[in-house]
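Note to self: keep these together.
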Amino acid sequence: MKYKRILLKLSGESLMGDKAFGIDNNRLKSYALQIKEIYEAGVEVAIVIGGGNIFRGVQAEEGGMDRTHGDYMGMLATMINSMALQSALESEGVHSRLQSAIEMKAIAEPFIRRRAVRHLEKGRVVVFGAGTGNPYFTTDSAASLRAIEINADVILKGTRVDGIYSADPEKDPNATKYDMISFDDVYSKGLNIMDMTAFTLCKENNLPIIVFDMDTPGNLLKVLKGEQVGTIVRN
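Structure:
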């Protein structure tokens, strides 16, 4: 395998599958099986998943709710998804641990960096829930932060599209796909991959990002084998 320790970032929206909201059990199972493939290959896997299929802090602000309040609600949404993913992994025989940035003793361990690393070393998948535990930070920022803290080799950002394009491929038929692009080029071209805080964290800590289509079974394993799947962003 090309990478030994990874941070997999999944969007909450992707869990909806064909539903209008909530969690599609078939999509959840598909993700669990893909993660199981790389887990059984000996890769150390940490995961951060968003909560957009349930609630987004931005929605709350648009409705007149306090942004801080809305962001904490969004963090709780990520915990629901994290618990669902953990359950799906366990049902496939994948040993896992859920750590939360907000203390929730009944359902998750508190986030402790050294404990998280120890779980990975012992062959457990670690799911990081509740974002960074702070309002005004997205789950992209949480993924970048946790990846740096656990010394991950790469962030794998699983999306609906098969990489980074010069424009939105769903709107522009002439959009061209990049196999590899630098952090600086992403800045200069104004491409939207992660929020700027998350992206800058990766750039400053020399942590590559691979954007790929997670909805196609087998892609995750191909990325780990070093095959040309998706787009890699690096310094």
